[in-house]
Write a structure and sequence with these properties.
alpha+beta, 4-stranded mixed β-sheet, 2 helices
Length: 115
């Protein structure tokens, strides 16, 4: 008889506990979608072989849309034509050329190693 009373009491206590539990609601919140930011490397190295003609070296510099050559060996060209001439002149003397390429809100460096 005592065992039956204890069992009924424990079951009643469990029912009371389950009835008084607060409601738990689980929501999964998606994080805000991040825009993919295309980033170019801060430094690009272009290795120019000895067999490449100096007049074709400016074509090896890949510029994205909206980019321009801001400086060549820390000298500022007036326009794209002068930048092209400066690259050709640097290709004749061999060595390397340090280009600063600007565009939009970013800036990157291009190092031309001319053999």
């Amino acid at each position: 008889m005592l065992f039956r009373v204890l069992t009924i009491g424990l079951c009643a206590a469990c029912v009371v506990l389950l009835a008084t539990l607060p409601t738990v609601r689980v929501e999964q919140v998606e994080p805000r979608a991040r825009r993919a930011i295309a980033r170019s490397p801060a430094l690009s190295v272009v290795d120019v072989a000895a067999e490449v003609a100096p007049d074709s070296v400016p074509a090896l510099v890949r510029l994205a849309r909206g980019e321009w050559i801001q400086a060549i060996d820390d000298r500022l060209p007036r326009d794209a034509v002068e930048a092209d001439k400066m690259i050709r002149a640097g290709a004749h003397r061999r060595g390397f050329l340090d280009l600063t390429v600007a565009g939009g809100a970013r800036e990157r460096r291009v190092l031309l190693l001319i053999h």
